[in-house]
Amino acid sequence: MRRRLILWLAFALVHGLVGWLGWRMPNQPMGDVYLVYEPWSTAALHGAGIVGVTESWVYPHLALVPMLLAHAFAWLGGYTVAWAVLVTPCDAAGFWLLIGDARSRSRRAAAWFWLAFILLLGPVGMYRIDAITVPLAITGLLWVVRRPLVASALLAAGAWIKVWPAALLAAALVAVRRRAEVVTGALVTSAVIVAVVILMGGVAHLLGFVTAQTGRGLQLEAPVSTLYLWGAALRVDGWWLFYDRDILTFQVTGPNVDVVIAAMTPVLALAAAAVVLLGALKARRGASVVRLLPPLALALVVVLIALNKVGSPQFHDWLIAPLVLWIVLDRRRARPLAALALLSAVLTQTVYPLMYGLLLVPDVSAVAVLTARNLVLVALMVWAVVRLARVPVPARVRRPLAEAPAPV
Predict the structure, then answer these.
(1) Listed residue (102, 101, 138, 104) closest to 118, CA to CA
(2) Above 50 in pLDDT, residue 50?
(3) Model's pTM, two decimal places?
(4) I want to staple 324 with a disulfide (CB 3.0 to 4.6 A). Which of 20, 110, 212, 232 is the partner?
């Protein structure tokens, strides 16, 4: 009882502190909430157009639901406060499921990791739509072996809020034995969402969130942008930063940047496919789901972050769920990767929002910190893939020659 009380007190303290820091830190760490979430949801409530239905949208369609729900708490102090209030009980639901009666040492360790990650990543992790997907992803992964139908439905719902939980669905489909239930839960959930969008008249914009991403350039914080960022910091002619007003992000440009932009999507797809294939080979050879699912899920998620031409800091929220699962199942093997993820989180908060003004200059010190963060991300990706490759499989037992089947 005492351990559970301490965890819940820490939960309240961390969420309250991070929520408050959003108001105190520079460079608008809460900007997306009041600059885009509130206008989008307000327009929908007042019949002025529904993003994803009356126009193409950068997010999947279900992302509008939490943006609308936040209005129910706006009386507490405005929409931005309401968003933090909405995220907190969502996290609390996942936290409650994770710790249970707090008797499990591994589950307590996973809970402390989650809280530490929230604190080290800072306000950008809370004041973004990605925060809503984290408890869904954690719940889905914790239930995926015993309740694969419900778990896959939750992961599919998360993917219709922000695409990344689809990676967890892919990992579950490879590692979990009850694959038919995983497929059924995801398909039924997706079919219901698609049907609602079509009935609302949004068929023309059904895949708008996919096409909206294909034409994006190299975002400032993405690992692939590091070389261009250094060129701009060293004042090399033809290398610079600019603000894209269509997608509201800073991007980099320089020699052959269009080639790099065009290459990154297939590189990301091929890398993710290679990780899935490696996981499938392990599953085919009999690897246990307990040993296979955590590194497979983490490897896929880190590939989506490290090889993405969009490098938004809130993407680090995606690391929480696979590492929570890994700590629950095998905290000793998960410990070094969790520590590396925490280092990446604190470097991310150092870059944004704390040093972001310097990064836009761009100042060499800020670029150096971002470069360190990107190197940590790449190291985490490589390490996760190596751990996946080393997942043990049962040794094949060779039968004595006398028991071998006779040749035909």
Answers:
(1) 138
(2) yes
(3) 0.94
(4) 110
